[in-house]
Amino acid sequence: MLRFLWCCFLGVMFAPALAAEKIESVRIWPSPDSTRVVFDVSGKAQYRLLSQNRQTVELEIANILSPSLGKMSGESELVKDIKVKKLPGNRGILLQVELTRAAREKAFTLPPSDRYGHRLVLDLADVQAEQAAATPPPPRSQRAGGRDIVIAIDAGHGGHDPGAVGPKGTYEKHVTMAVSEKLQALINKEPGFKAVLTRTSDYYIYPSKRPDLARNKQADLLVSVHADAVTNRKAHGASVWVLSLRRATTEVGRMLEQTEQHSELLGGVAEVIKDSANERYLAQTVLDLSMNHSMTTGFEVARRVLAEMGRVTHLHKKEPQAASLGVLKAPDIPSILVETGYISNPTEEQKLKSASHQQKLANAIFRALKQHFTDTPPADSWLAQRQGAAPVNRTTAQNTPARTATTTNPGSSANTARQQPASQQRPAPVIAGPRVATSAASGPAVHTVKRGETLSGLAKQYGLPMSVLRNHNKLKSDNIQVGQVLRIPN
Prior knowledge:
Number of helices: 14
Number of strands: 19
CATH class of the largest domain: Alpha Beta
Strand order of the largest sheet: 11-10-12-15-13-14
Oligomer: single chain
Strand content: 15-25%
CATH architecture of the largest domain: 3-Layer(aba) Sandwich
CATH topology of the largest domain: Aminopeptidase
Distance between the termini: 86 Å
Largest sheet: 6 strands, mixed
């Protein structure tokens, strides 16, 4: 009995030492508006976040006794120094992260994954950078003869998130960055076009923030570049994804619930109807028009990209695919996600890491974008004005940004835009970020199906994604009958 009690006593006394973990390395991942500090630990860290002030973040870890940080990699302007000291009484260690300026901190643990073991993560949001980002961008500088068409290019993943990893160790984040930079160079060489990158080097941006960056740049289109991966290594080929109608509708509802954002959504128009009961109605109208324009444009661009990519690589899917992906969440910005191929396929991995193949992919995407905007340039763009007066048709109308004041009557079914002579014009209100479509002719409200017509053919005829036409009429399949009446969304 005495021996049993002695063993229990020793077990209690030495349990902390036996359970003690250690910090194996520290990785710092900076981005323009935040920094992630990752502590790789030998086991799950039992920590407590102590925030004395916004320029020193303290973490108390109970089950780590060694005051060592191991190997450190990376650096950030936000992080000045990381210190560690042992707490008295074998109570663990105290990590002190000294900052150069104020930040909002968040700490959490991550379990082991394919590439990493246990991790203690400290996210630091740069308050100064966030305040700068919240400041509305200055009005776009107009050059004589019209503005540039802006393409936002989003290189998927980055920083601590490598994306998919190929059999030979190729990181998706490196492939997406290489293709994006090549695409940016092609676009910037083309007169009347301008390309901006959502990330300019190897750092991470949350998917939900990427459309916001495109909106802040007043982009006409967002192109997100990725590489696919599945367990079946035989899968190969490129595909293009667009925003699903369900996700778009959800995002519109979310935007409308955030009433404090109505003024941002309405731009200059909000000043006219401030504190008016009509504000939510106008926001709904603006977003509905914008969503219809964005989904139609996105689908059309996706089809063109697939056609061009099919000339340089195998296509996994020959039609645009709809999905509820975070980077495609914006119902107000035409967006596509390009899967350049399957990095999980050994043969395709070799192609995707090849600079020559990356250039072919960039060339294909560029040709598609140039074709689209040459055919349907925004009315206030240099490209449209060089071509002369833009043709008034349904397709052009859907791709024409609202640059004139809009008067809305809740009782009417359409908005009326009144164009003043250039000499009398005041600065036109601009919907913050997105280009809202205005239509000179709404098109028919209904269509009676004739012999030989198909749903896909009608969708093309009216410049709509087939999914939009199907869902608008609550069709359970793509089959339609002669004499059937379909409602055509305006």
